[in-house]
Amino acid sequence: MPTTTTTFSCFLFTFLITTSTMASMVGAVGVNWGTMASHPLPPHKVVKLLKSNSINKVKLFDANSDVLQALSGSNIAVTVGVPNTLLRSLNSSKKAADSWVHDNVTRYMPNGGTVTRIEYVAVGDEPFLKSYGEQFHPFLIGAAMNIQAALKKAKLDSKVKVVVPCSFDSFESGFNLSSGVNFRPDLNKTMIELLAFLDKHGSPFFVTISPFITHLQTKNISLDFSLFKETARPHNLSHKTYKNSFDLSYDTVATVLSTAGYPNMDIVVAKIGWPTDGAANASSYLAETFIKGLINHLHSNLGTPLKPHKPPLETYILSLLDEDQRSITSGNFERHWGLFTFDGQAKYHVDLGQGSKSLVNAQNVEYLSSKWCVVNNNKDLSNATASALEACANADCTALSPGGSCFNISWPSNISYAFNSYYQQHDQRAESCDFGGLGLITTVDPSMDHCRFPIEIRVSHAEFHRMCNFLRVILLVTTLLASLTV
Ligand SMILES: *[C@@H]1O[C@H](CO)[C@@H](O)[C@H](O)[C@H]1NC(C)=O
Ligand SMILES: *[C@@H]1O[C@H](CO)[C@@H](O)[C@H](O)[C@H]1NC(C)=O
Ligand SMILES: *[C@@H]1O[C@H](CO)[C@@H](O)[C@H](O)[C@H]1NC(C)=O
Ligand SMILES: *[C@@H]1O[C@H](CO)[C@@H](O)[C@H](O)[C@H]1NC(C)=O
Ligand SMILES: *[C@@H]1O[C@H](CO)[C@@H](O)[C@H](O)[C@H]1NC(C)=O
Ligand SMILES: *[C@@H]1O[C@H](CO)[C@@H](O)[C@H](O)[C@H]1NC(C)=O
Ligand SMILES: *[C@@H]1O[C@H](CO)[C@@H](O)[C@H](O)[C@H]1NC(C)=O
Ligand SMILES: *[C@@H]1O[C@H](CO)[C@@H](O)[C@H](O)[C@H]1NC(C)=O
Ligand SMILES: *[C@@H]1O[C@H](CO)[C@@H](O)[C@H](O)[C@H]1NC(C)=O
Ligand SMILES: *[C@@H]1O[C@H](CO)[C@@H](O)[C@H](O)[C@H]1NC(C)=O
């Protein structure tokens, strides 16, 4: 009997060693979890969603306490984010950095324990984006150093590493294949300082790689090349032949790090994904092809021409969920990066390493009532388009954009789409379906084939408003009754 147990334990041990070695060889796959949504899925449901899909790494964009609370005890490794807007104060004040670390890191790791497994603090979110100009980048190095010092003071610097997620446009002409690659000239000094800082503390280089955006911006890069298709026409760079856009971008990064004197610095792909709506070639079908291609490529352990058999240390998919309040300055597709819709339903199926071919949906999601706001066809609709545009300024009409899932629904259905989005975002309050008398509340689902008219998630603040209104009515009635009896 003991022999069997020993044999079994030994087998288990070997199995665990083998799988963990394999996992570290392949490089872990995690997800970005953003919360720029009008009605975010409650954090504890998101954590369940992560667990049921065996996703064991998440990257956050801030340090939301409900989110960190929900992650505690989950054994999911976490990257917490410092928003760009805090960089200025964190650069100029060591005290601000100490408080940030105390409030947002130390509090979740009592006595150096691991209640929440915080692995990285990401200082800024793509602070070097060209469109930001000089808004954030001058404060970056100072802020990163102050956060590092604060972690050291809190005796957490051996557990938590400071990183800086860089945008791909930190590199010059990534895809002018005829010229060499370099940091953007205006960033050269900062980047050299950043690499020295990361190297000193043994931190990896976090970078966004976006074959979707590269395809949008570079006529030369075909869709097939972006989607890891075997049949894509290859490109040459520095005497090497590239069969997909990912490798080309990755080696651009590797080349620049190497030229700067850090050929062995680990690279983490901080954001990579394919959107499913809001633009041409943004669809679930292509997103599925892309993510499957990416995962197969990572699992093949082939690496890239410059880094054979050395895939990224970690790869974070953009994104876990759709977010209806993400900025759309770079495109309407920005709100549709999710593997899952805003309410945690899988858009397609892929094996992220969970060992099953399909993703598991979020369970027991609570929605608002089955009600929609549409345009009243019996009214004079000559001003309806103006009302819809006004609604869209606040709500999310990205599905109506060219190439989007609702682009080809005809007028006035597109007006209804806009009205409904506004109505749902305002928790189905009757006055948010007015539109100068043009709105009509219906219980008949106006969704069409490809175009879904969503019903929002019930979130606690909506619950709270409703509760307050109810209490207010009770109070009013009581007061009225009291005054009558007197
Ligand atoms: C960053 O903080 C340091 C120390 O307070 C200060 O000297 C420096 O001017 C700040 N940088 C910028 C760009 O304001
Ligand atoms: C902790 O993080 C939250 C969310 O990012 C932020 O609002 C708060 O200001 C941070 N705490 C401190 C002391 O900076
Ligand atoms: C690409 O780089 C070459 C050589 O540096 C330069 O002549 C050319 O103008 C660049 N093309 C673009 C589109 O930037
Ligand atoms: C960037 O800075 C490094 C170190 O100061 C220097 O050697 C290099 O020539 C610079 N590169 C560019 C493109 O300015
Ligand atoms: C990219 O496009 C330019 C013209 O815009 C062409 O001259 C060049 O050969 C193309 N490069 C590749 C690698 O396809
Ligand atoms: C979508 O992809 C196809 C195939 O590569 C391409 O012809 C088309 O221009 C793309 N559309 C956009 C808007 O990028
Ligand atoms: C790329 O390089 C390969 C071999 O190095 C060569 O056969 C091929 O013609 C090159 N392609 C282009 C477009 O330059
Ligand atoms: C449309 O808007 C104009 C300008 O605000 C207004 O004068 C007109 O009465 C409106 N028409 C209808 C049918 O509401
Ligand atoms: C809208 O486009 C989709 C595919 O893009 C197509 O399947 C559908 O039939 C179209 N609907 C209408 C009403 O044209
Ligand atoms: C709805 O479609 C009409 C006709 O195609 C167009 O003029 C209008 O701008 C669209 N409105 C919205 C909100 O997309």
UniProtKB/TrEMBL annotation:
Q: Which InterPro entries match?
A: GH, Glyco_hydro_17, Glyco_hydro_17_plant, X8
Membrane topology term: Lipid-anchor; GPI-anchor
Task: State the compartments where it is located.
Answer: Cell membrane
Task: Identify the keywords attached in UniProt to this record, alphabetized.
Answer: Cell membrane, Disulfide bond, Glycoprotein, Glycosidase, GPI-anchor, Hydrolase, Lipoprotein, Membrane, Plant defense, Signal
GO molecular function, a single term? glucan endo-1,3-beta-D-glucosidase activity
What catalytic activity does the UniProt entry give for this protein?
A: Hydrolysis of (1->3)-beta-D-glucosidic linkages in (1->3)-beta-D-glucans
Q: Where are the transmembrane segments?
A: none
Give its E.C. classification number.
Answer: 3.2.1.39
Give a GO biological-process term.
carbohydrate metabolic process
- Record-annotated X8 domain positions: 371-453
GO cellular component term of the entry, any = plasma membrane
Task: Name one matching Pfam family.
Answer: X8
Q: Which residues form the signal peptide?
A: 1-23
Please indicate which superkingdom the organism of origin belongs to: Eukaryota
Q: Give the record's family classification.
A: Belongs to the glycosyl hydrolase 17 family.
What name does UniProt use for this protein? glucan endo-1,3-beta-D-glucosidase
Species source reads Glycine max (Soybean)
Q: What is the lineage of its organism?
A: Eukaryota, Viridiplantae, Streptophyta, Embryophyta, Tracheophyta
